[in-house]
Amino acid sequence: MNNRPWPAYLVATLFACLAVFLAIFVTPTGDLPDESGHYAYVVDMTKGRPFPLLGQAEIPPNLWRDIEGVVDHHRKNYIVQHPPLYYGIAAIPYAIVHQFTEDKHILARAPRMVSALSLGLLVLILFRMLAFLGFAEGTALAGASLIGFIPMVTHLASGISNDLFLTLMGALATLYLVKYVVDGQIRHAYACAFWLACAGATKMTAWILIAAYVGILLFEMRKRGLLWIGHALAVSLLSVSTALWWMRRNIYHFGDPFYIHGSHLKQMVFDYSLLDYFRQQPFFEWLMYHFYALIGFSGYCQTPQTAEQVQRLCHGGKLFRVEGPSYLVFTALALVCVLALLAAITRNAWRATAVRPEAKGWISLQAWASSLLGNRSVRKLFFVLLFTLGTAGVAFALINSHNASWARTALPFGASFLLAFAGFLGIASVFTSEQPHQRLTAYGPLLLTLFVALLFYQGYKAILLAGSPHGIQGRYLLPFVPLLLASFMLATKTFRYQAQLLLVICLCMGWAYVNAYATYVIPFFQHVRI
Amino acid sequence: MSKLIKTLLLTAALFAGFAALTWSLSRNKVQHFGNTMVLDQKEITAIKPVGPFGGQFLLSQKIDMDHINFRDEYMDRPICLSLFLDRNFPNFQHVPFKIALVGDHLNVVKLFNTAVIRNNFGLLCFEDAKLGELKDQQVSIQISAESPSQTKIARVIMTPHKKGHAAEIDGVVSNLSLPFALEVQQPISRHQWMSFVVINLIVSLVLAIVFVQSFSRTRS
Question: Which of A403, A459, A8, A525 is nearest to A277 (CA)?
């Protein structure tokens, strides 16, 4: 690997430039998910209020533009439920620009640069991760670029939101997690824990990522006796340190470590089961749509007085999803990638059934679990059991899921359910495989499956509390994408035409991205919203 | 040939290819900006450009056809929709409209040129057999204005009614009465073109770098 991979630097810079261009010229201010709340949090930071309190902090009515005669309806800022790391960093460019101008149009663009820069760095970190895993420079670059061809990603990178920054933290943690699983050097575990702590200080949803990654770190930790216990404690404490701090703050103020906006709601829907939710709500369909592109928000329309003042901006659809050829290409490619992943995991897991674990100079939970399944017959039985249950699960999901039309849902459902199958079958690889690369191939889909299951349950709870589906946000999956990318790349590593396959995927994703912006995003922002 | 030249040539080729493909796929297609849920029927929808190269603008309101009983015994066949334009209509007298019922998969059932509209009122009839194809689908009623040049707002109210009878605006069969706010703008702004060019250029350049890097590595 070249020590100075200039093409990677160039590609990362181009993605950052793309996000800057979108931030300045395409995405209207306030038109990103919850951008008004995120921006108000940033402004609070610069005004000496580093920890605004949920229930007290407000979104000013003249946040985006000065409007005469506006009346403050004291809209509460629900975004201050998030830990402050991103907002502290986003406040720096805001404070600098504020020294030179009071122009709100320019001021609002300053914190957006943090997200744009995060996208560039994200591509670079993904490239580094893939290069570490032994991929050629061009192949690693192709794999790393894929994330930038998702319209949702560049949309988030063009606004004030903690999502892209969190994904960057997640990517850094993943880089060191991958290094640790492969080479076992304890310093990589601590580096992973440090970036997990940063993620924990960025957004509460990252705490799930922390729990999952700490689980892998401990499962893979190769030490003996007290040394194992000492490192395990230190790595765990470092990882959860910021999350614990924020939990303690929530307990102090609200009496609940996981207190968020809406926690006070009482159940209003009864006699509605999880299966009802699965059958009646388009959870998976929406999740795929929203992961690819849920564009717009119209934050400036949230306050009644603002809606009245800028009525021209606030009529009609306030956000939309990308459909048509771009989405079709994305879901078709997603299905192809998932099939490749499933094939590799099945092959790895089956081959691992024929291997007897070797004695090692160190011990790990993984090695211990593998030795428990040392008998080949037991391993085969374990594999067959998982495969049978997984197949039955996919069949059950296909039969029972909410489905308006197979023509519209065949690809996204195929990709979603087979990915879950791959993750489920990956349990066999995780427990029995001697090869770190094979376990990494399984970790990506496994963790994403667990997270989506949790998201599904949260969506179900939202139905019980609010009576309508909420929180089905594809962007919540982004922190898990770096590990999924590593899994997919490792899954296709043995393919004879891996480089060619990646280039075709890149080409199709690139065109789908251009088409999505040309036919949906730009027309929406320039003719509907502005 | 140096890497730089290869990258630039590939960028130009990708740029042209992407633009051509986008244009060919979007020029005759209707884009949806529908929300993830069926929009409130009382909500006024916004203008929807057909595409970057189309020069048309489209207005749509998604409705759930489950709520509309096209087989109602009180209705004659074929079903007619009345198109009512409010007092701003004179501003649009010279703007040709098209009205269409469009299903989930862009299966346009009927397209009307509003040349039939006289005195602020037009009666548009749809074939029953065609409407039957839309049963149980999410359907958009869409109005597009070709060659838009006006900037005033018109309101359009559509009501299904019996053939040969006068329309009952906000009448008994009012569940199809949908208000549309039509705000006509210039087809494609320079800003829109420039945005498309910049995005296409950056994506093409990224892909060109990836391709050149991959092939040079493969060869070595």
Answer: A459
Segment A330-358 shows an average pLDDT of 90
Q: How high is the mean pLDDT of chain A?
A: 89
Q: Are A297 and A284 in contact (CB under 8 A)?
A: no
**B36-86 residue pLDDT tens:** 222 222 233 333 333 333 333 344 444 444 444 343 333 434 445 545 444
Sorting pLDDT into bands at 50, 70 and 90, what band is B156?
very low
* B43 Cβ under 8 Å from any chain A Cβ: yes
In angstroms and rounded to an integer, the radius of gyration of the C-alpha atoms of chain B is 23
**Cα distance from N-terminal residue to C-terminal residue, chain A:** 47
Give the dihedral of Cα atoms A520, B34, A64, A16; nearest 10 deg. Answer: -30
Q: Where are the domains of chain B?
A: 3-24+191-219, 33-188
Structural element, H or E, at residue A217 = helix A206-220
Residues A242-257, mean pLDDT to the nearest whole number: 94
CA dist A225 and A234 (Å) reads 15
Choose the closest CB to A289 out of B36, B46, B138.
B36
**Contacting residues of A for B205, CB less than 8 Å apart:** 14
CA dihedral A217, A219, A224, A229 (to 10 degrees): 70
The verdict on B9 touching A (C-beta cutoff 8 Å) is no
Q: Three-class SS of residue A275?
A: helix
Number of neighbours of residue B91 by Cβ within 10 angstroms: 17
What b/e sequence results for B126-137 when a residue is b if at least 16 CB atoms lie within 10 Å of its CB, and e otherwise? Answer: beeeebeebeeb
Which of B143, B207, B212 has the most A C-beta neighbours within 10 Å, making it the best mutation to test the interface with A?
B207
The residues with which B145 forms a beta bridge, in sequence order, are: B57, B97
The two three-digit tokens of residue A493, written as one number:
């590593």
Q: B51–A518: do the CB atoms touch at under 8 Å?
A: yes
3-state secondary structure (DSSP) of residue B158: strand
The class of domain B33-188 in CATH terms is mainly beta
From A146's Cα to the closest Cα of chain B, the distance in A is 10
Residue pair A156/A34 in contact by the 8 Å Cβ criterion: no
Q: Is pLDDT at A317 greater than 90 in this prediction? A: no
Q: How would residue A462 be classed by pLDDT, with cut points 50, 70 and 90?
A: confident
Q: Which chain B residues are closer than 8 Å to A141 by Cβ?
A: 209-210, 213-214
Q: Which residues from B are below 8 Å from A146, CB to CB?
A: none
* Pairing state between β A319-321 and A294-296: antiparallel
SS3 call for B145:
strand
pLDDT confidence of residue B115: 42
**Rounded to 5°, angle at Cα A304 from A298 and A310:** 55
Taking CB atoms and an 8 Å cutoff, what residues of chain B touch A499?
214, 218
Judge whether B118 and B151 are in contact, CB under 8 Å: no
Helix A498-516 and helix A137-145: axis angle, to 10°?
A: 30
Q: What is the ipTM of this complex?
A: 0.92
pLDDT exceeds 60 at position B21: yes
Residue ranges of alpha helices (H) inside A363-405 are 365-372, 376-400
Strand B108-113's sheet: what is its strand order?
B47-49, B56-64, B138-146, B97-102, B108-113
pLDDT band at B149; cut points 50, 70, 90? very low
Nearest CA in chain A to B192: A522
